[in-house]
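User: structure tokens for this one?
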Amino acid sequence: MIRVTFLGTAASRPTVGRNVSGISIHREGESFLFDCGEGTQRQMMRFGTGFALDAIFITHLHADHFLGLIGLTRTLSLQGRTDTLRIYGPRGSTRSLLDAVHLGVDRIAFPVQVEELEPGEEAIKTEEYSIAAYSSRHGVSSVGYVLREHPRPGRFDVEKARELGVPEGPLFGRLHAGEPVVAAGREIRPEEVVGPPRAGRTIVYTGDTRPCRETEEVARGADLLIHDATFGEDEVKRAHETFHSTGRGAALLARRAKVRRLVLTHLSARYAANALPIEREAREVFPETKVAYDGLVVEVPFREDEVEKEERPVLKNARRGGSE
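Assistant:
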């Protein structure tokens, strides 16, 4: 399971009920933080995401997206971290990110490695998944991020393998890995007992941005799109001028990209007490939309494991309507 926890959902400054930007993503035992606004360390404690971070991804250098590094790195140091912390950011971000990490006289007890990413460049690439940057539109050097799992082997048909005379044990594993084996006096090929490849999961986080072609392309068919929705449609001109998005603008993009679910974040303080107008405007275009609130958890299962929402809600709602 991939679990996404929204640590901060406010734009520019915190409100009584919303902290500034921060998103925790747990995937199969690994933990990643996307953006780190001021106070993120407390939000991590509040919502139980833990501090065992494998990497931090910063979308851009507006203060509400990276100032939390100052406190977070000191907390990690006091907790005895010794492993290298990898921090990724857009072009031109190295100096500011290192300044934040090393601000003051406190010494960090673990190595910090900062790396700038060009759009299209992969920060992490394993046999199972990758995390890459892509170009967003925010008027400053900025990137969004896409976590994309590689296709997985198809389902293994145990009964069919038995019928063909394959003994249980190592031969099952070799067949599932794509190797032919010899059993019952003949060669058994993987396609005889293994179904078609199964799609991995894709999550896209835009950071602050206008709706743009680059997001639409990387998010095509994504399981989850997390998009800027700073303003409502009554402020669409201001959204464009400040390189932000409205909820409806994000929903139009989500519909064109044919994503499965859309979660909106980075809300202006004017919507802090009532985010329903933004949610309604977006749902008119793309019904599978949710406005995030601090503490919202979104689980992203494999598609074949999904069940009806009435049986097991995927969006866990502690409050209704996306309001404070």
